[in-house]
Amino acid sequence: MTKLISPFKILARDENSKARTGILYTKHGMVRTPVFMPVATQACVKALTEEDLNYVGAECLLSNTYHLYLRPGTEALKKLGGLHNFMRWNKSILTDSGGFQVHSLSHLRKITEDGIWFKSHHDGSKHFFSPESVIESEAAIGSDIWTCLDVLMPNSAHKADLRRALATTKLWAERAAAHYKKIVPEQNIQQNEDGSFSVGHSILFGIIQGSIYPDLREEAAKHMARQDVHGFCIGGLSVGETLQEMNTAVEATIPHLPEGKPRYLMGLGTPIEILECIERGVDMFDCVWPTRVARNGQAMTSEGKVNIKNNAHRLSEEPLDKNCDCWVCKRYTRAYLSHLYRAGELTSHRLISIHNIRFLIKTMERVRAAILDGTFRQLKKEIIEKYK
Amino acid sequence: MTKLISPFKILARDENSKARTGILYTKHGMVRTPVFMPVATQACVKALTEEDLNYVGAECLLSNTYHLYLRPGTEALKKLGGLHNFMRWNKSILTDSGGFQVHSLSHLRKITEDGIWFKSHHDGSKHFFSPESVIESEAAIGSDIWTCLDVLMPNSAHKADLRRALATTKLWAERAAAHYKKIVPEQNIQQNEDGSFSVGHSILFGIIQGSIYPDLREEAAKHMARQDVHGFCIGGLSVGETLQEMNTAVEATIPHLPEGKPRYLMGLGTPIEILECIERGVDMFDCVWPTRVARNGQAMTSEGKVNIKNNAHRLSEEPLDKNCDCWVCKRYTRAYLSHLYRAGELTSHRLISIHNIRFLIKTMERVRAAILDGTFRQLKKEIIEKYK
Prior knowledge:
Helix content of chain A: 40-55%
Number of strands of chain A: 18
Largest interface: A-B, 33 and 33 residues
Oligomer: homodimer
CATH topology of the largest domain in chain A: TIM Barrel
CATH superfamily of the largest domain in chain A: Queuine tRNA-ribosyltransferase-like
CATH architecture of the largest domain in chain A: Alpha-Beta Barrel
Distance between the termini of chain A: 41 Å
Mean pLDDT of chain A: 96
Largest sheet of chain A: 6 strands, parallel
Number of helices of chain A: 14
CATH class of the largest domain in chain A: Alpha Beta
Low-confidence stretches of chain A: none
Radius of gyration of chain A: 20 Å
Strand content of chain A: 15-25%
Shape of chain A: globular
């Protein structure tokens, strides 16, 4: 097994499931888990500012190496003092490796053993990502949590192709971890007497692939468990598989990972998906869903989904969610939000996004408290009841 | 002349021009003039919230009777406690009468002596505005400053048609003022010992038309000066005429208006236009320009216009305006704003709009101070130099 210390402190475990709550320490502070990370795809969470994100209690954002590499460019970001300084965010940032975006956005990608050739979705210009170059890009971005370049295949691919892709992903993770060691000074993580950690540099997460096949997931997890990484991403899910398939893939992965490192399931999700994964031992989540549906007039509330376009809200003096503590719910009526949406006002995107992210982050706060006091199962049941 | 008291206190007059500074009192507080009023067309200043508007120092918003009448509907607004409660804005609101929107947006309008038939630009449904019904709509909206229904004609119209339109506008102003008296309790304005006013109800402004013809403007101004209104709108400008034509129309209007009532030039504008009008005795302004150009990446700064799309800003660590006190300028670089704009992020619209409105409101603050200390001409020259 790896000798690398992970700056992750587990505070409590749920007795009836694999759920746990803890703190991941980064060079920008603490990330309490389970955590929901809003997605700042292009150095910005859509319609919001970092002031809004501080307000809703975000502790870690996700940003995209692929997008930032193309625009404003990693060299530009380096000159401008890194992503934190660029967007004025002073808490943690995780960057994904670009593997997913190269898969989903780029035309004519070509995977070799060395890396991936791809064409920019902006202008068709040709680019190359290698496991090492992605680490260099993440270093230029200055994110707190880096991820290794991986190969993503659609779940519908032949198993032989998935196996081949996994072999490449494994090889690339080894190369990324080796490159990380080259550029990051040793002993940049120190454990303090109280169990907390002082973290002097960015940390590295490996990405576990394997599609919906338990045997591939197990193989990938066992391999990644042996690598010098500080945490694990579970990739290749939330791409159209059923909830059952996702659960099976997670169950085939988690038992093979060391307890003491955080696990992040990429691209989730809805309250139900997140709670199912927390129960199975996942600690970290990100998703564009709460901001994307917000721009379509959909809110997540303590009573379930609310579609602000619904005529029933046109004269409603109720807040979006009477149990929510966010200023949008404290200040505005459904009637006003409904009007703004109908009138095509951009302000409606911002207001519903603030609420939706606050809702998910507050749900995580409740989950953490429930794990601490032994009521996670009960809370999970209560929330899922509203989102069935 | 009218016996109506206008709740307007003039604090100082410029010695070298007709510029003056004062306070217009409304039932929601003070509006210090010269004032720039951001435009909340549909109960929302585009991309902003009322928190942003308080932040930039807005004291009065403009909203549109035509738009609010169609959506959410004036009956709905009445049920929801009026526009202030609906949008959570607790300072002043002026509503225009809808005359301009019926002219510019509606299909197949038909003007009779009674009022205007028009078709909604949303769904083609047929509606009727009369001088009385517009006052009723404004009462339902609950705005602080109401305006009379007018007839707007393009400047290119035959003078005979403009004269006919003006005759109708004059007649309608009389009917609006009469209807206002019917529904508003008398003596709702009291002057206090210190010269300030206590205002218990919405007040009424008449709209002066007359296109770019000095003789028509004079006729319209003299007529409106005799009406029981608390202030004057100068309408029909900022619709494509030259700066010289606008100045001439204003010069033909102002001398025929009583000193003690505020004058509002509808739909201006750019810093140059506003300063030219202040010099000629105008007190109030509104325009969608600062928010519209913001959404196109254009900022107004103390050094003149800045187009954030310009490549020169891509790596610039300068703020949008180094002399601006707004939080956008204190927090973000041009590089970041430029990136957000290129990336198509909605956040860029909000951030540049906040700056642009703050810039205009701060310019008005400087104008008021300059009128008080006798340096208005100098300030005007200095600002216009940057915007030639």
